[in-house]
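Example S7 (structure tokens).
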């Protein structure tokens, strides 16, 4: 595959006008590093319409500090009198407020963010009265997601339109993963196609690292994890068209996962790219 442009936001702490470095996937990728612990003023993570819950978390806090604050809030919360769905919304909204786009971040930077998902799930299991509610699978899980986001009664096309409105395409890879996760959570993307997505992201991470540091460095697992932890993949820019070309060309999803998966992806990319 040639000519697929990927941009990465370079590190320039304190700069109001950050420069974007653009190159090709198969070229010499100059990956910009961000200072993820950049000092910021204390800020309030606001309430959502669904829970009306307000979180006050220090803007400069790192992941462990924020998790500690969320855990303290969880332990101080009286969940009695709340339904399972109300608890589910409250806890998940708190984590999304503290760590926006947390699902995508956990995939792009697992070493740094994996504890978010672990603690989030532990809080749900502790607070929700019916353990089966947390462990829902298949159609029951899809219906729970639709209720959580307020998509009950909508057709698949209407859901896709709502998701596009609520998660506007900002050109980032993180954005694409967030949209994929929301659609998959409601059953709009098949499991095998989600698997193709995941493997493509993992392949892209390895490719960027290898082309940045060379073949020998690519064999060093610790170096790779430290590179991910630095946030090097979090600001990658990639359009739906570029994602399609990468998956169909470099990844050859039709050969690995079958032509039906490629067709599903092609239809999905087309719908997500339109207006």
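Recovered sequence:
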């Amino acid at each position: 595959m040639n000519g697929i442009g990927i941009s990465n936001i370079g590190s320039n702490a304190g700069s109001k006008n950050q420069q974007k470095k653009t190159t090709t996937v198969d070229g010499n990728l100059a990956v910009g590093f961000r200072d993820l612990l950049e000092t910021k003023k204390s800020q309030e993570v606001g309430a959502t319409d669904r829970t009306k819950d307000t979180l006050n978390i220090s803007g400069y806090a790192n992941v462990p500090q924020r998790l500690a604050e969320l855990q303290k809030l969880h332990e101080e919360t009286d969940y009695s009198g709340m339904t399972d769905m109300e608890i589910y919304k409250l806890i998940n909204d708190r984590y999304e407020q503290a760590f926006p786009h947390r699902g995508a971040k956990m995939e792009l930077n697992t070493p740094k963010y994996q504890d978010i998902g672990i603690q989030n799930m532990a809080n749900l299991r502790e607070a929700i009265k019916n353990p089966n509610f947390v462990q829902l699978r298949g159609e029951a899980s899809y219906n729970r997601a639709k209720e959580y986001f307020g998509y009950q009664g909508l057709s698949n096309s209407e859901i896709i339109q709502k998701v596009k409105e609520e998660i506007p395409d900002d050109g980032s890879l993180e954005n694409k993963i967030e949209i994929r996760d929301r659609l998959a959570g409601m059953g709009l993307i098949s499991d095998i196609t989600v698997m193709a997505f995941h493997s493509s992201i993992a392949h892209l991470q390895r490719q960027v690292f290898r082309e940045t540091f060379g073949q020998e460095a690519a064999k060093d697992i610790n170096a790779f994890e430290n590179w991910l932890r630095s946030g090097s993949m979090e600001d990658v820019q990639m359009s739906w068209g570029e994602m399609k070309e990468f998956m169909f060309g470099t990844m050859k999803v039709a050969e690995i996962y079958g032509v039906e998966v490629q067709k599903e992806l092609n239809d999905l990319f087309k719908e997500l790219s339109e207006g």
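Notes on this example. Residues 191-213 form the longest helix (23 residues).
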